[in-house]
Amino acid sequence: MRKVSLLLVVAMVLALVPTVSISAQGGNTFVFGEFGNAVQLDPAVVTDGISFRVTVQGCEALLFYDGSTTNPVPGLAKSWTVSDDGLVWAFQLEEGVMFHDGTPFNAEAVKWNFDRWRLTSHPQHFAESVFEYYDYMWNGFDEGSLIQSVEATGEYEVTITLAEPYGSMLNTLAMPMFAIASPAAVEAAGAAYGTPEVGYSCTGPYKFVEWISDDHITLERNAEYWGEIPGNVDTIIYRIIPDAAARFAALQSGEIDAFEGPNVEDLDAIDAADDLFIQMRGPLNVMYLAFSYRVKEFRDPLVRQAIAMALNRQEIVDAFYPPGAVVATTMIPPSLWGFNPDVPAFEYDPEGAKALLAEAGYPDGLSEVTVLPVDENNMVIEDAAGEVIPLTLYFQPVQRPYNPDGEGIGEAMVSYLADIGLEAQLGSVGDWSAYLDARSNGELNGLYQLGWTGDNGDPDNFLGYFFGAGPKPAEGYYYNQEVHDLLMQARSMTAQAEREPIYQQVDAIMHDEVGRIYVAHTGVPLAFRSRVSGYVTNPLGTEHFKFVSVE
Q: Alpha-carbon distance 247 to 262, whole Å?
Protein backbone atom coordinates (compact mmCIF):
# COMPACT_ATOMS: atom_id res chain seq x y z
CA MET A 1 0.00 0.00 0.00
CA ARG A 2 2.83 2.37 0.80
CA LYS A 3 4.45 1.92 -2.63
CA VAL A 4 1.14 2.29 -4.51
CA SER A 5 0.33 5.50 -2.64
CA LEU A 6 3.80 6.84 -3.32
CA LEU A 7 3.50 6.23 -7.05
CA LEU A 8 0.21 8.10 -7.14
CA VAL A 9 1.77 11.04 -5.35
CA VAL A 10 4.67 11.07 -7.79
CA ALA A 11 2.32 11.10 -10.78
CA MET A 12 0.25 13.94 -9.35
CA VAL A 13 3.06 16.24 -8.31
CA LEU A 14 5.36 15.84 -11.30
CA ALA A 15 3.00 18.16 -13.11
CA LEU A 16 3.87 20.84 -10.55
CA VAL A 17 7.59 20.76 -11.36
CA PRO A 18 8.56 23.65 -13.67
CA THR A 19 10.19 22.93 -17.00
CA VAL A 20 13.66 24.42 -17.26
CA SER A 21 15.56 25.40 -20.35
CA ILE A 22 19.20 25.79 -19.39
CA SER A 23 21.31 27.71 -21.84
CA ALA A 24 24.64 27.32 -20.05
CA GLN A 25 24.47 23.75 -18.82
CA GLY A 26 27.50 21.62 -19.54
CA GLY A 27 29.86 19.09 -18.01
CA ASN A 28 28.95 17.76 -14.58
CA THR A 29 25.74 19.43 -13.43
CA PHE A 30 24.41 19.54 -9.87
CA VAL A 31 20.72 20.50 -9.64
CA PHE A 32 19.39 21.67 -6.28
CA GLY A 33 15.64 21.94 -5.68
CA GLU A 34 14.92 25.23 -3.93
CA PHE A 35 11.98 26.39 -1.76
CA GLY A 36 11.42 29.59 -3.70
CA ASN A 37 12.99 32.57 -5.37
CA ALA A 38 16.10 34.23 -4.08
CA VAL A 39 15.40 37.77 -2.94
CA GLN A 40 18.63 39.34 -4.23
CA LEU A 41 22.15 38.23 -5.16
CA ASP A 42 24.01 41.14 -3.61
CA PRO A 43 24.81 39.48 -0.26
CA ALA A 44 25.35 42.84 1.42
CA VAL A 45 21.65 43.69 1.24
CA VAL A 46 19.83 40.39 1.83
CA THR A 47 18.94 38.42 4.97
CA ASP A 48 17.38 35.20 3.65
CA GLY A 49 18.92 31.75 3.36
CA ILE A 50 17.67 31.10 -0.17
CA SER A 51 19.69 34.03 -1.50
CA PHE A 52 22.76 33.14 0.53
CA ARG A 53 22.69 29.54 -0.69
CA VAL A 54 23.37 30.99 -4.13
CA THR A 55 25.79 33.79 -3.28
CA VAL A 56 28.14 31.67 -1.14
CA GLN A 57 29.01 29.63 -4.21
CA GLY A 58 30.60 32.66 -5.85
CA CYS A 59 31.10 35.41 -3.29
CA GLU A 60 33.85 35.14 -0.68
CA ALA A 61 34.65 37.00 2.52
CA LEU A 62 37.97 37.70 4.21
CA LEU A 63 37.48 34.57 6.32
CA PHE A 64 35.73 31.24 5.71
CA TYR A 65 34.11 28.73 8.06
CA ASP A 66 36.09 25.51 8.35
CA GLY A 67 34.18 22.61 6.76
CA SER A 68 31.24 21.52 8.92
CA THR A 69 32.18 23.83 11.81
CA THR A 70 31.66 27.49 12.66
CA ASN A 71 35.39 28.03 13.24
CA PRO A 72 36.78 30.96 11.20
CA VAL A 73 39.81 30.19 9.03
CA PRO A 74 41.72 32.19 6.38
CA GLY A 75 39.78 33.11 3.25
CA LEU A 76 40.61 36.08 1.07
CA ALA A 77 42.70 37.15 4.05
CA LYS A 78 45.50 34.62 4.49
CA SER A 79 46.63 35.89 7.91
CA TRP A 80 46.05 38.69 10.41
CA THR A 81 47.34 40.36 13.54
CA VAL A 82 45.55 42.34 16.26
CA SER A 83 46.79 45.01 18.64
CA ASP A 84 46.99 44.32 22.36
CA ASP A 85 43.90 46.44 23.04
CA GLY A 86 41.86 44.54 20.43
CA LEU A 87 41.12 47.66 18.37
CA VAL A 88 43.45 47.47 15.33
CA TRP A 89 43.30 44.46 13.01
CA ALA A 90 45.73 44.11 10.08
CA PHE A 91 44.81 41.54 7.42
CA GLN A 92 47.26 40.18 4.85
CA LEU A 93 45.37 39.38 1.64
CA GLU A 94 45.75 36.66 -0.98
CA GLU A 95 47.59 37.87 -4.08
CA GLY A 96 46.78 37.13 -7.71
CA VAL A 97 43.02 36.87 -7.11
CA MET A 98 40.66 38.20 -9.80
CA PHE A 99 37.00 39.14 -9.69
CA HIS A 100 34.67 37.42 -12.13
CA ASP A 101 34.65 40.55 -14.31
CA GLY A 102 38.45 40.36 -14.73
CA THR A 103 39.34 43.22 -12.38
CA PRO A 104 41.94 42.60 -9.65
CA PHE A 105 41.20 41.90 -5.99
CA ASN A 106 43.37 43.95 -3.62
CA ALA A 107 43.28 46.04 -0.45
CA GLU A 108 41.62 48.98 -2.20
CA ALA A 109 38.76 46.69 -3.26
CA VAL A 110 38.31 45.51 0.33
CA LYS A 111 38.31 49.08 1.63
CA TRP A 112 35.78 50.06 -1.05
CA ASN A 113 33.39 47.29 0.06
CA PHE A 114 33.62 48.15 3.76
CA ASP A 115 33.16 51.84 3.00
CA ARG A 116 30.13 51.03 0.86
CA TRP A 117 28.50 49.08 3.69
CA ARG A 118 29.52 51.48 6.45
CA LEU A 119 29.12 54.98 5.04
CA THR A 120 25.66 56.19 4.10
CA SER A 121 27.27 58.90 1.95
CA HIS A 122 29.08 56.33 -0.23
CA PRO A 123 27.81 56.55 -3.85
CA GLN A 124 27.01 52.83 -3.88
CA HIS A 125 25.31 52.73 -0.47
CA PHE A 126 22.07 52.90 -2.40
CA ALA A 127 19.14 54.53 -0.62
CA GLU A 128 16.77 51.85 -1.96
CA SER A 129 18.90 49.08 -0.44
CA VAL A 130 18.83 48.01 3.20
CA PHE A 131 22.21 47.02 4.62
CA GLU A 132 20.51 45.33 7.53
CA TYR A 133 23.24 42.90 8.51
CA TYR A 134 25.92 45.60 8.62
CA ASP A 135 23.63 47.77 10.74
CA TYR A 136 22.94 45.00 13.25
CA MET A 137 26.36 43.33 13.40
CA TRP A 138 28.48 46.49 13.50
CA ASN A 139 26.26 48.73 15.68
CA GLY A 140 25.09 51.01 12.88
CA PHE A 141 26.58 53.22 10.19
CA ASP A 142 28.90 56.21 9.84
CA GLU A 143 30.36 57.55 13.09
CA GLY A 144 28.13 55.24 15.10
CA SER A 145 29.65 52.11 13.57
CA LEU A 146 31.86 49.81 15.60
CA ILE A 147 34.24 49.98 12.61
CA GLN A 148 35.84 53.42 12.75
CA SER A 149 38.08 53.17 9.71
CA VAL A 150 39.25 50.78 7.00
CA GLU A 151 42.52 51.60 5.27
CA ALA A 152 44.57 50.00 2.50
CA THR A 153 47.95 49.95 4.28
CA GLY A 154 49.61 48.10 1.42
CA GLU A 155 48.59 46.67 -1.93
CA TYR A 156 47.58 43.46 -0.18
CA GLU A 157 47.13 44.64 3.41
CA VAL A 158 44.03 46.18 4.89
CA THR A 159 43.76 47.60 8.42
CA ILE A 160 40.44 47.81 10.30
CA THR A 161 40.21 50.02 13.40
CA LEU A 162 37.38 49.48 15.88
CA ALA A 163 35.83 51.83 18.41
CA GLU A 164 35.97 49.09 21.05
CA PRO A 165 36.90 45.41 21.21
CA TYR A 166 34.50 43.04 19.47
CA GLY A 167 34.17 39.53 20.85
CA SER A 168 32.94 37.90 17.63
CA MET A 169 35.14 39.88 15.22
CA LEU A 170 36.53 36.93 13.24
CA ASN A 171 33.26 34.95 13.20
CA THR A 172 31.44 38.03 11.93
CA LEU A 173 33.96 38.71 9.15
CA ALA A 174 33.36 35.17 7.85
CA MET A 175 29.61 35.76 7.45
CA PRO A 176 28.41 35.53 3.84
CA MET A 177 26.91 39.01 3.72
CA PHE A 178 30.40 40.46 4.17
CA ALA A 179 31.67 38.92 0.94
CA ILE A 180 33.84 41.18 -1.22
CA ALA A 181 32.25 42.27 -4.51
CA SER A 182 33.91 43.78 -7.56
CA PRO A 183 33.76 47.57 -7.13
CA ALA A 184 33.70 47.99 -10.91
CA ALA A 185 30.71 45.65 -11.26
CA VAL A 186 28.68 47.40 -8.54
CA GLU A 187 29.51 50.84 -9.92
CA ALA A 188 28.51 49.77 -13.44
CA ALA A 189 25.21 48.17 -12.41
CA GLY A 190 24.18 50.69 -9.79
CA ALA A 191 21.13 49.70 -7.74
CA ALA A 192 20.47 46.88 -10.23
CA TYR A 193 23.48 44.96 -8.90
CA GLY A 194 22.27 41.61 -7.56
CA THR A 195 19.02 41.57 -9.55
CA PRO A 196 18.16 38.85 -12.09
CA GLU A 197 19.47 40.98 -14.94
CA VAL A 198 22.92 41.42 -13.35
CA GLY A 199 23.63 38.79 -10.70
CA TYR A 200 26.92 39.05 -8.81
CA SER A 201 30.62 39.52 -9.58
CA CYS A 202 32.94 38.30 -6.83
CA THR A 203 36.02 36.06 -6.47
CA GLY A 204 34.56 32.62 -5.78
CA PRO A 205 34.56 29.23 -7.51
CA TYR A 206 31.26 29.70 -9.38
CA LYS A 207 30.26 32.59 -11.64
CA PHE A 208 26.74 33.88 -12.21
CA VAL A 209 25.14 32.89 -15.53
CA GLU A 210 21.41 33.60 -15.40
CA TRP A 211 18.40 33.99 -13.14
CA ILE A 212 14.90 33.34 -14.46
CA SER A 213 12.51 34.30 -11.66
CA ASP A 214 10.21 31.53 -10.44
CA ASP A 215 12.17 29.02 -12.53
CA HIS A 216 15.92 28.68 -12.01
CA ILE A 217 19.30 30.22 -11.27
CA THR A 218 22.40 28.93 -13.07
CA LEU A 219 26.06 29.22 -12.04
CA GLU A 220 29.16 27.91 -13.81
CA ARG A 221 32.64 26.94 -12.64
CA ASN A 222 35.18 29.78 -12.54
CA ALA A 223 38.11 28.49 -14.60
CA GLU A 224 40.35 31.22 -13.13
CA TYR A 225 39.48 30.52 -9.50
CA TRP A 226 42.41 31.25 -7.20
CA GLY A 227 41.70 28.42 -4.74
CA GLU A 228 40.87 24.73 -4.90
CA ILE A 229 37.60 23.16 -6.05
CA PRO A 230 37.66 19.64 -4.54
CA GLY A 231 34.50 18.48 -6.35
CA ASN A 232 33.81 17.95 -10.04
CA VAL A 233 30.70 20.10 -10.57
CA ASP A 234 30.90 22.41 -13.59
CA THR A 235 27.34 23.78 -13.52
CA ILE A 236 25.03 24.48 -10.58
CA ILE A 237 21.32 24.89 -11.19
CA TYR A 238 18.82 25.95 -8.55
CA ARG A 239 15.36 24.75 -9.58
CA ILE A 240 12.50 26.69 -7.99
CA ILE A 241 10.00 24.07 -6.72
CA PRO A 242 8.01 25.53 -3.81
CA ASP A 243 6.12 22.35 -2.88
CA ALA A 244 8.09 19.78 -0.84
CA ALA A 245 6.18 16.85 -2.32
CA ALA A 246 6.98 18.11 -5.81
CA ARG A 247 10.65 18.39 -4.88
CA PHE A 248 10.57 14.81 -3.63
CA ALA A 249 9.00 13.65 -6.89
CA ALA A 250 11.64 15.55 -8.87
CA LEU A 251 14.35 13.86 -6.81
CA GLN A 252 12.88 10.41 -7.47
CA SER A 253 12.64 11.06 -11.20
CA GLY A 254 16.22 12.34 -11.39
CA GLU A 255 15.24 15.90 -12.37
CA ILE A 256 17.05 17.27 -9.33
CA ASP A 257 19.98 15.88 -7.33
CA ALA A 258 19.23 17.29 -3.88
CA PHE A 259 16.87 19.39 -1.83
CA GLU A 260 16.48 20.64 1.71
CA GLY A 261 13.61 19.83 4.06
CA PRO A 262 11.61 16.87 2.78
CA ASN A 263 8.23 16.36 4.40
CA VAL A 264 8.44 14.35 7.60
CA GLU A 265 6.17 11.67 6.13
CA ASP A 266 8.62 11.16 3.22
CA LEU A 267 11.74 10.56 5.31
CA ASP A 268 11.20 6.79 5.65
CA ALA A 269 10.66 6.39 1.90
CA ILE A 270 13.86 8.30 1.13
CA ASP A 271 15.79 6.29 3.67
CA ALA A 272 14.48 3.01 2.24
CA ALA A 273 15.21 3.85 -1.41
CA ASP A 274 18.35 2.33 -2.96
CA ASP A 275 19.15 5.42 -5.03
CA LEU A 276 18.41 8.12 -2.41
CA PHE A 277 19.84 9.09 0.96
CA ILE A 278 19.38 11.58 3.80
CA GLN A 279 22.10 13.75 5.31
CA MET A 280 21.34 15.79 8.44
CA ARG A 281 22.49 19.33 9.10
CA GLY A 282 23.22 20.08 12.75
CA PRO A 283 20.66 22.12 14.73
CA LEU A 284 21.67 25.78 14.95
CA ASN A 285 18.34 27.48 14.45
CA VAL A 286 15.09 28.57 16.07
CA MET A 287 11.52 29.04 14.92
CA TYR A 288 9.49 31.63 16.83
CA LEU A 289 6.23 33.53 16.95
CA ALA A 290 6.82 37.27 17.25
CA PHE A 291 4.58 40.05 18.52
CA SER A 292 4.10 43.42 16.92
CA TYR A 293 4.52 45.74 19.87
CA ARG A 294 2.45 48.33 18.04
CA VAL A 295 -0.55 46.18 18.98
CA LYS A 296 -1.87 47.70 22.20
CA GLU A 297 -3.09 44.41 23.60
CA PHE A 298 0.27 42.69 23.05
CA ARG A 299 2.07 45.30 25.15
CA ASP A 300 0.49 43.65 28.20
CA PRO A 301 2.78 40.81 29.40
CA LEU A 302 -0.25 38.92 30.73
CA VAL A 303 -1.63 38.69 27.20
CA ARG A 304 1.72 37.55 25.83
CA GLN A 305 2.02 34.90 28.53
CA ALA A 306 -1.53 33.72 27.86
CA ILE A 307 -0.66 33.21 24.18
CA ALA A 308 2.50 31.32 25.15
CA MET A 309 0.49 29.01 27.42
CA ALA A 310 -2.20 28.49 24.78
CA LEU A 311 0.16 26.89 22.24
CA ASN A 312 0.89 23.18 22.54
CA ARG A 313 4.37 23.41 21.14
CA GLN A 314 5.19 19.77 21.85
CA GLU A 315 2.29 18.71 19.62
CA ILE A 316 3.51 21.09 16.92
CA VAL A 317 7.04 19.64 17.09
CA ASP A 318 5.74 16.07 17.04
CA ALA A 319 3.41 16.72 14.09
CA PHE A 320 5.54 18.88 11.80
CA TYR A 321 9.24 18.43 12.61
CA PRO A 322 11.74 15.66 11.87
CA PRO A 323 12.98 13.32 14.60
CA GLY A 324 15.34 15.01 17.02
CA ALA A 325 13.63 18.42 16.97
CA VAL A 326 12.96 19.91 20.41
CA VAL A 327 10.64 22.52 21.86
CA ALA A 328 12.50 25.83 22.16
CA THR A 329 12.68 27.77 25.40
CA THR A 330 15.11 30.49 24.30
CA MET A 331 16.40 32.19 21.17
CA ILE A 332 19.79 30.49 21.55
CA PRO A 333 19.68 26.77 20.63
CA PRO A 334 21.02 24.16 23.07
CA SER A 335 23.87 23.35 20.67
CA LEU A 336 25.42 26.81 21.07
CA TRP A 337 27.35 28.20 24.02
CA GLY A 338 25.35 30.89 25.79
CA PHE A 339 22.23 28.70 25.97
CA ASN A 340 20.55 28.92 29.37
CA PRO A 341 19.38 25.45 30.45
CA ASP A 342 17.57 26.87 33.49
CA VAL A 343 14.97 28.80 31.48
CA PRO A 344 11.73 26.79 31.79
CA ALA A 345 9.29 26.06 29.02
CA PHE A 346 5.84 27.63 29.11
CA GLU A 347 3.55 24.71 29.92
CA TYR A 348 0.54 24.10 27.71
CA ASP A 349 -2.30 25.30 29.94
CA PRO A 350 -5.37 26.67 28.12
CA GLU A 351 -7.36 27.15 31.34
CA GLY A 352 -4.49 29.07 32.89
CA ALA A 353 -4.23 31.13 29.70
CA LYS A 354 -7.94 32.04 29.93
CA ALA A 355 -7.42 33.16 33.53
CA LEU A 356 -4.54 35.42 32.47
CA LEU A 357 -6.65 36.98 29.71
CA ALA A 358 -9.41 37.66 32.23
CA GLU A 359 -6.89 39.23 34.60
CA ALA A 360 -5.69 41.43 31.70
CA GLY A 361 -9.26 42.62 31.13
CA TYR A 362 -10.31 40.31 28.30
CA PRO A 363 -12.56 37.65 29.90
CA ASP A 364 -14.37 37.13 26.59
CA GLY A 365 -11.18 36.97 24.54
CA LEU A 366 -10.35 39.07 21.48
CA SER A 367 -11.08 39.10 17.78
CA GLU A 368 -9.82 42.63 17.09
CA VAL A 369 -6.77 44.57 18.25
CA THR A 370 -5.62 48.19 18.23
CA VAL A 371 -2.52 49.25 16.29
CA LEU A 372 -0.79 52.25 17.90
CA PRO A 373 1.28 54.87 16.03
CA VAL A 374 5.03 55.33 16.44
CA ASP A 375 7.17 58.45 16.65
CA GLU A 376 10.21 59.42 14.57
CA ASN A 377 12.44 57.31 16.84
CA ASN A 378 10.33 54.18 16.31
CA MET A 379 8.95 54.40 19.85
CA VAL A 380 5.33 53.31 20.23
CA ILE A 381 3.02 56.13 21.38
CA GLU A 382 1.04 54.30 24.03
CA ASP A 383 -1.49 57.01 24.91
CA ALA A 384 -2.50 57.72 21.30
CA ALA A 385 -5.61 56.57 19.51
CA GLY A 386 -5.00 53.61 17.24
CA GLU A 387 -6.52 51.75 14.35
CA VAL A 388 -8.72 48.74 15.13
CA ILE A 389 -7.98 45.75 12.89
CA PRO A 390 -8.76 42.00 12.95
CA LEU A 391 -6.44 39.89 15.10
CA THR A 392 -4.14 38.18 12.57
CA LEU A 393 -1.48 35.49 12.75
CA TYR A 394 0.84 35.70 9.74
CA PHE A 395 2.47 32.52 8.46
CA GLN A 396 5.65 32.20 6.42
CA PRO A 397 4.76 31.58 2.74
CA VAL A 398 7.72 29.28 2.03
CA GLN A 399 9.21 26.28 3.77
CA ARG A 400 12.28 27.16 5.80
CA PRO A 401 14.85 24.95 7.56
CA TYR A 402 13.38 25.90 10.93
CA ASN A 403 9.76 25.97 9.72
CA PRO A 404 8.78 22.93 7.61
CA ASP A 405 5.13 23.97 7.09
CA GLY A 406 4.31 27.59 7.83
CA GLU A 407 0.67 27.39 6.86
CA GLY A 408 0.05 24.07 8.61
CA ILE A 409 1.71 25.28 11.80
CA GLY A 410 -0.19 28.54 11.49
CA GLU A 411 -3.50 26.69 11.27
CA ALA A 412 -2.60 24.73 14.41
CA MET A 413 -1.65 27.93 16.23
CA VAL A 414 -4.91 29.65 15.27
CA SER A 415 -6.81 26.63 16.56
CA TYR A 416 -5.01 26.72 19.91
CA LEU A 417 -5.70 30.45 20.24
CA ALA A 418 -9.39 29.92 19.51
CA ASP A 419 -9.53 27.52 22.47
CA ILE A 420 -8.79 30.43 24.83
CA GLY A 421 -11.06 32.95 23.11
CA LEU A 422 -8.56 34.61 20.77
CA GLU A 423 -10.25 34.49 17.38
CA ALA A 424 -7.32 35.11 15.05
CA GLN A 425 -7.48 34.98 11.28
CA LEU A 426 -4.64 33.32 9.40
CA GLY A 427 -2.86 35.60 6.97
CA SER A 428 0.28 36.00 4.90
CA VAL A 429 1.87 38.58 2.64
CA GLY A 430 2.61 37.54 -0.92
CA ASP A 431 5.79 35.61 -1.67
CA TRP A 432 8.92 35.28 0.47
CA SER A 433 10.39 38.59 -0.67
CA ALA A 434 7.15 40.45 0.08
CA TYR A 435 6.86 38.79 3.49
CA LEU A 436 10.41 39.83 4.41
CA ASP A 437 9.75 43.36 3.18
CA ALA A 438 6.61 43.55 5.32
CA ARG A 439 8.60 42.33 8.31
CA SER A 440 11.40 44.85 7.67
CA ASN A 441 8.90 47.69 7.41
CA GLY A 442 7.01 46.70 10.56
CA GLU A 443 3.81 45.92 8.65
CA LEU A 444 3.03 42.51 10.19
CA ASN A 445 0.75 44.03 12.82
CA GLY A 446 -0.29 40.99 14.74
CA LEU A 447 1.44 37.73 15.53
CA TYR A 448 3.88 36.53 12.92
CA GLN A 449 6.08 33.52 12.26
CA LEU A 450 9.76 33.92 11.67
CA GLY A 451 12.94 32.09 12.52
CA TRP A 452 16.69 32.17 12.36
CA THR A 453 19.56 29.97 11.32
CA GLY A 454 22.80 31.08 12.94
CA ASP A 455 25.23 32.93 10.68
CA ASN A 456 28.50 32.72 12.57
CA GLY A 457 28.33 30.37 15.57
CA ASP A 458 28.32 33.18 18.13
CA PRO A 459 25.43 33.97 20.55
CA ASP A 460 25.63 37.63 19.59
CA ASN A 461 24.32 36.59 16.18
CA PHE A 462 21.14 35.25 17.82
CA LEU A 463 20.53 37.86 20.53
CA GLY A 464 22.65 40.88 19.62
CA TYR A 465 21.47 40.85 16.00
CA PHE A 466 17.82 41.19 17.00
CA PHE A 467 17.83 43.00 20.33
CA GLY A 468 21.13 44.88 20.51
CA ALA A 469 19.88 48.03 18.78
CA GLY A 470 17.05 50.48 19.42
CA PRO A 471 13.42 49.79 18.58
CA LYS A 472 13.16 48.79 14.94
CA PRO A 473 10.18 48.11 12.67
CA ALA A 474 11.89 44.88 11.61
CA GLU A 475 11.67 43.54 15.18
CA GLY A 476 8.05 44.51 15.74
CA TYR A 477 9.18 47.66 17.60
CA TYR A 478 10.35 45.59 20.57
CA TYR A 479 12.77 47.36 22.89
CA ASN A 480 14.17 46.70 26.36
CA GLN A 481 16.92 49.04 27.55
CA GLU A 482 18.34 46.50 30.02
CA VAL A 483 18.58 43.86 27.30
CA HIS A 484 20.24 46.35 24.96
CA ASP A 485 22.84 47.40 27.54
CA LEU A 486 23.70 43.81 28.46
CA LEU A 487 24.14 42.79 24.83
CA MET A 488 26.38 45.76 24.09
CA GLN A 489 28.45 44.86 27.13
CA ALA A 490 28.86 41.26 25.93
CA ARG A 491 29.72 42.38 22.41
CA SER A 492 32.65 44.45 23.66
CA MET A 493 34.17 41.52 25.57
CA THR A 494 36.53 38.96 24.09
CA ALA A 495 36.52 36.15 26.70
CA GLN A 496 33.79 33.52 26.24
CA ALA A 497 33.73 32.83 29.99
CA GLU A 498 32.78 36.47 30.62
CA ARG A 499 30.28 36.75 27.79
CA GLU A 500 28.33 33.55 28.35
CA PRO A 501 26.61 34.52 31.65
CA ILE A 502 25.38 37.73 30.03
CA TYR A 503 23.64 35.88 27.20
CA GLN A 504 22.11 33.51 29.73
CA GLN A 505 20.85 36.50 31.71
CA VAL A 506 19.28 38.01 28.60
CA ASP A 507 17.57 34.70 27.83
CA ALA A 508 16.06 34.71 31.33
CA ILE A 509 14.87 38.33 31.05
CA MET A 510 13.20 37.73 27.70
CA HIS A 511 11.52 34.59 29.04
CA ASP A 512 10.13 36.47 32.03
CA GLU A 513 8.69 39.24 29.86
CA VAL A 514 7.63 36.82 27.08
CA GLY A 515 9.43 38.95 24.52
CA ARG A 516 8.79 36.27 21.88
CA ILE A 517 7.39 32.76 21.85
CA TYR A 518 10.04 30.26 20.83
CA VAL A 519 8.68 27.14 19.13
CA ALA A 520 11.39 24.73 17.98
CA HIS A 521 15.05 23.96 17.37
CA THR A 522 15.66 21.32 14.74
CA GLY A 523 18.22 19.48 12.72
CA VAL A 524 17.53 19.81 9.02
CA PRO A 525 17.33 16.80 6.67
CA LEU A 526 18.68 17.13 3.15
CA ALA A 527 17.75 14.53 0.54
CA PHE A 528 20.16 13.42 -2.22
CA ARG A 529 20.39 11.08 -5.15
CA SER A 530 23.07 8.45 -4.71
CA ARG A 531 25.11 9.93 -7.58
CA VAL A 532 26.02 12.84 -5.26
CA SER A 533 29.04 12.68 -2.95
CA GLY A 534 31.19 15.08 -0.99
CA TYR A 535 28.39 17.37 0.24
CA VAL A 536 29.58 19.01 3.48
CA THR A 537 26.75 20.12 5.75
CA ASN A 538 27.24 23.11 7.99
CA PRO A 539 24.99 24.21 10.88
CA LEU A 540 24.97 27.74 9.43
CA GLY A 541 23.09 26.42 6.38
CA THR A 542 25.27 28.11 3.76
CA GLU A 543 26.99 25.03 2.35
CA HIS A 544 29.58 25.23 -0.40
CA PHE A 545 28.91 23.16 -3.49
CA LYS A 546 32.59 23.27 -4.51
CA PHE A 547 33.00 20.10 -2.42
CA VAL A 548 30.30 18.21 -4.35
CA SER A 549 30.96 15.56 -6.98
CA VAL A 550 28.37 13.89 -9.21
CA GLU A 551 28.71 10.62 -11.11
A: 8
Those residues whose C-beta lies under 8 Å from the C-beta of residue 5, and which sit 6 or more positions away, are none
- Segments of the chain with pLDDT less than 50: 1-26
Q: What is the CATH number of domain 2-37+213-282?
A: 3.40.190.10
Determine the pLDDT at residue 9: 37
Answer CATH for 48-186 from 3.30.450.20, 3.90.76.10, 3.40.50.850, 3.30.450.40: 3.90.76.10
* Amino acid symbol at 269: A
Which pTM value belongs to this model? 0.84
Give the SS3 label for residue 355: helix
Burial of 156-191, coded b for 16+ CB within 10 Å and e otherwise, reads bbbbbebbebbbbbbbbbbbbbbbbbbbbbbeebee
Question: What is 285-522's CATH topology?
Answer: Dipeptide-binding Protein; domain 3 (3.10.105)
Phi, psi of 511 (to 5 degrees): -65, -45
Give tens-digit pLDDT for 121-161: 999 999 888 899 999 899 999 999 999 999 999 999 999 99
Q: Would you state the pLDDT for residue 141?
A: 96
